[in-house]
Structure formats: C-alpha cells, structure tokens
C-alpha cells in the first residue's frame, strides 16, 4: 500500500489532538440496527449536537467500499469534535448514527427512513453502491432531508427536478471517461475493449465510455458485461482474450476489479489494464491480485497521492493529518478517496454557514458550497449537485504494488 512519509512533528495542532482522541468522540455507531452496544437506537436528539445518519455497506458485496468510508467517518468526526462546530450562537458536537445496510437497497431505504424519523438526524450520508443510494434517495426526497451519496453513477443526482435534496461527492462518469480516453490516446491505444461491472455503476461506465470514445475518435471495439459479484468471470472474458485486444478498460468496483484482472490474466490477456476510480481500494492491491494489476492505470482524485511535506496549503495539511491518523489506527493507507470525510464536512459546513440544523437550510447551503476537500475541489450549485471538479482527477499507475501518480 502507498504510505506517504509523514512524521508526527509535521502535523498541525488539531491533527495531533485528533490523533490522541482514540475514536471516542464518534458515538452512536454500530454494524447492525437492533440497538446493540455501540448503536444509538432511537436516542433523543440533543440540541447541542449535529446528528448525521449513515447507511453503509459494512457487509455484503459492497463491503470493500463501505468499510473504508466508515473509517473516514470516524476519523473526521473525531477531528471536528476537537473544537466542535459553531452553529449560530452554539458550538455543537458531531454524532454519527451508523447502520450496516448489508449492500441491500431495501435495507438502505428502511434505514434512511428510520434515521430521519426515529433518530431525528439532520442529514443522511451513505450508499457506496448506486443501488443502495437509490434506495436512500426515495426516502430523502419524500421526507425532505439532505442526502449526500458516496456512490459512483451519474443518475444519482439526475434528473435534478427529482433529486432536489440529493448530492454526490464522487467523480462524474463522463469526467472519468474523458480522462481515460485521453490517456488511451496518449498511449496510442485507439482500439479498446470495455469490461463493465454488473449493475448501475457498470451501466454508467458503458454510457460514458461510448460518448467519450466517439468524441475522441477511439474505437470501442466491444463491451463485455461481468456477471454478479461472486460468479465466475472467466467464461465471459475468455472469448475477449482470444481476440487479442490491445487495451482493456475495467469499469467496476472491488472486489470485482481484482477478480476481473486475475481472470483476464488467467485466460491469457497480457495487455495493459485501465481502471475507473472505484478500483482504488485496499482489495485491489491484495496479495492475490498484485501480479495481475501491476502496471495498471487508474483515474482517481488527488487524495491518492497529493500529500507531501512541502505542500502547506490548508487542504494539504488536512489531508496529511487524515493520512497520519488513518495509518495510526489501521496500519496503512490505501490511498482511497475519503468521500465520507468530505460528505460529513460538507454537512457541518452547511450547518455552520446557515446558522441552523434545519433540513431545508442545510440543503440550501449545500447547493452553493465551493470548497477543497480530502478528495479534491468541490463546486456545487443549484444546477450541479455532483460537485467534484474534473481538475481534481489524476492518472495513477500500480508500480511495485503501490499507486504512483504519473500525470
């Protein structure tokens, strides 16, 4: 795993305080919704808190994404709680009520409703899978509570008329596809095959890559759709390998990314691999996948390699503090974009700017935020609820088992 060289003496005062917080300031968290120890159940709302509900994939096919976002939430809640958040004339602590949706859209929808109506949260975060995010969206819109999705897929915030309370912190598929195709052209690969995952994330990739390749005059020779997570990928990929493609784009999320790469190598494909941002995950660089993904390229936000000791902007210092805390708690940093961290910060910034925790006011200030987050720069507007800027994307390559920035 890529681990930036960081010494504790380089951290800000707030970062050092956070590093000693021990995770105790994030309450109401658990991996179930039966009120077990570590969960808040239907605890009465404290007027001195900002309460955020989070429905994440801590188990099931989306766990490779959801668990990392849980970690980001914990670190950022502790960071914010060092001083609290000034909302009007009151400094409030952050409380996150966490639920495991088990990667099931119906469970995510039920949890969103319970979090809003029983736990009285001020905003919702979650859904690292597009399917679970869509389950939450229906409830957020009906109840009129702000929701920030952590999933990939452009349809999450569109059409705007039906997504007035919904925002997204992941990159737009069209921006990712444009950067991927630009990289393919630079490397003189003008004929490419797309391997897209099962589900809505794969659907978005297919649509975006078709538009981007057509615009750039690149031949999208074939689109192959993977079966569901856990199924055997080799049969659908064997015929592809037999045709000898010069380049393959794999657009899916872990654990399918690593599984698809391994299957491609097993059936005989030896050419270059290109990944979408969801591939940047601890699972992809697991030992079982390393020989298959070595040399692969990925488009990903700047959080993957943007923290250096010489970069002293506030955003860079915040990223460095985050990485140090992550390494301290979990023993290594995978470089994934900490979308949940940005989502929680966006909610608290909206509450601070509005001077209230009212749902409508938080929503109104979310849609005008311009900020620099952990993943990159965000610009939201009434006509743009997907705020991560295209310029926040970089090109990375797996080199000796680590992600290295190349552009």
UniProtKB/TrEMBL annotation:
Residues 49-387 form the Leucine-binding protein domain. Belongs to the leucine-binding protein family. This is Amino acid/amide ABC transporter substrate-binding protein, HAAT family. PANTHER family: BLR7848 PROTEIN, LEUCINE-SPECIFIC-BINDING PROTEIN. It comes from the Bacteria. Keywords: Signal. It comes from Micromonospora siamensis.
């Amino acid at each position: 795993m890529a681990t930036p060289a960081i010494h504790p003496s380089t951290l800000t005062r707030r970062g050092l305080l956070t590093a000693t917080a021990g995770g105790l300031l994030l309450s109401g968290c658990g991996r179930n919704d039966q009120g077990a120890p570590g969960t808040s159940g239907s605890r009465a709302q404290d007027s001195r808190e900002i309460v955020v509900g989070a429905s994440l994939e801590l188990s099931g096919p989306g766990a490779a994404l959801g668990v990392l976002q849980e970690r980001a939430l914990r670190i950022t809640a502790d960071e914010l709680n060092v001083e609290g958040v000034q909302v009007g004339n009151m400094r409030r602590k952050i409380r996150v009520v966490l639920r495991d949706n088990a990667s099931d859209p119906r469970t995510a929808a039920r949890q969103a409703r319970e979090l809003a109506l029983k736990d009285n949260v001020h905003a919702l975060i979650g859904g690292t899978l597009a399917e679970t995010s869509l389950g939450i969206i229906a409830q957020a819109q009906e109840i009129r509570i702000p929701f920030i999705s952590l999933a990939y897929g452009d349809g999450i915030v569109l059409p705007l008329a039906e997504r007035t309370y919904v925002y997204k912190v992941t990159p737009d598929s069209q921006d990712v596809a444009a950067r991927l195709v630009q990289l393919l052209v630079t490397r003189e690969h003008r004929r490419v095959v797309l391997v897209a995952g099962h589900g809505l994330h794969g659907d978005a990739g297919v649509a975006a890559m078709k538009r981007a390749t057509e615009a750039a005059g690149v031949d999208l020779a074939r689109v192959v759709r993977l079966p569901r997570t856990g199924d055997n990928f080799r049969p659908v990929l064997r015929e592809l390998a037999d045709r000898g493609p010069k380049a393959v784009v794999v657009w899916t999320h872990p654990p399918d990314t690593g599984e698809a790469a391994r299957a491609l190598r097993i059936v005989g494909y030896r050419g270059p691999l290109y990944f979408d941002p969801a591939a940047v995950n601890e699972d992809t660089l697991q030992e079982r996948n390393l020989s298959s993904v070595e040399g692969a390229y990925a488009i990903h936000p700047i959080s993957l390699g943007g923290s250096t000791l010489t970069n002293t902007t506030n955003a860079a210092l915040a990223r460095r503090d985050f990485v140090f805390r992550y390494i301290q708690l979990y023993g290594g940093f995978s470089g994934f974009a900490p979308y949940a961290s940005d989502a929680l910060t966006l909610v608290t910034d909206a509450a601070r700017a509005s001077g209230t925790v009212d749902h409508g006011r938080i929503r109104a200030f979310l849609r005008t935020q311009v900020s620099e987050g952990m993943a990159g720069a965000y610009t939201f507007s009434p006509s743009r609820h997907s705020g991560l800027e295209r310029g926040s994307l970089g090109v990375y390559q797996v080199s000796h088992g680590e992600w290295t920035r190349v552009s």
